C-alpha cells in the first residue's frame, strides 16, 4: 500500500510540480510496472519533505510556547505595535499548525480503521459467521436414528419437498 501524509504535502506549493515532473517520466514496461516505479520515485521526495516539516505534534507545542511567550511580553507592554504583530503572527502560525496536526491525526485514524475496522463491524461479521455455521448441515439423521452422509445434489433429489434453500437444522448441524 502506498500512502503519504497528504495533510501538509498537498498544501505545499511545490507538491504539484514535483508530482507532475515524476509522472512525466517515460518508463518502459506494463502500465502497472510504470505506476509502481513512479510511486517509488516519489517516495524519497515525500520522505524528505516530511523530515523538513518535523514532528507535527512537537511543532504545535513549540508554537504554543512561542504564543505564550509573546502574550507574556505583550502583557507587560500593551501598546507596543511590534509585540501586537508578533502575538498576531504566533496565533496564526499556531492555528495553521493545529489544523495540520488535526488533519494528520484524522488521516491516521482513517488508516487504522481501514486496516482493522471498528468494533461494530467486527461484532457484525462474527455474528454472521456464527449464524452461517449454526445453519450448516453436517449430517442427516433418519427416523430410525441412522446417520446419512448425502451430497447436496442427492439431498434435494431425496427430499423433493425441501428445496436447496429450505434445509433447516436444529443448531447443531443435524437436519430435523
From TrEMBL:
Superkingdom of source: Eukaryota
Name under which the protein is recorded: Uncharacterized protein
